[in-house]
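Q: I'm writing up a methods section and want to include an example of the input and output format. Could you take the sequence below and give the corresponding predicted structure tokens, formatted cleanly so I can copy it straight into the document?
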Amino acid sequence: MSRLGAELLESMRQIVAHERGEIELPSYEIEVPRRIDVARVRAKLKLSQRQFAERFGLDVTAVQAWEQGRRQPDRSARVLLTIIDREPEAVQRALRHAA
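A: Here is the clean output for your methods example:
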């Protein structure tokens, strides 16, 4: 049996055991902030609006609108902004283009 086959079989065993109440599977909940202070996140990184947008693949006009309160980041943007706030290097690594 291949490694993948063995992993799938083990996963199925765990699902059945969980459904029977024999084991608890690890779980976690995420919390996406309802609001995020984009200016604070950007200022913490000491970047201009343009630098911030370019570094993290954001539209500079969106960053400006968020900071001026004309628009609020949608859920996906709030997730990304939260990660930028907590782990900016991880986002940069993930977005870095290999030359």
